[in-house]
Amino acid sequence: MSSSSFKAVIPAAGLGTRFLPATKAMPKEMLPVVDKPAIQYVVEEAAQAGIDDILVIIGRNKNAISNHFDSVPELEVKLRDKGDDERLLRVIESSDLADIHFVRQGEPKGLGHAVLRARAHVGDASFAVMLGDDLIDERDELLTTMIAEHERTGAAVVALMEVDPDHIHMYGAADVEATDADGVVRVKGLVEKPKAEEAPSNLAIIGRYVLAPSVFDILERTEPGKGGEIQLTDALQELAADPDGPGVIGVVFRGRRYDTGDRVDYIKAIVQLAADREDLGPELRPWLKEFAASY
Question: Of 29, 211, 233, 279, which is least surrounded by CB within 10 A?
Answer without folding.
Answer: 279
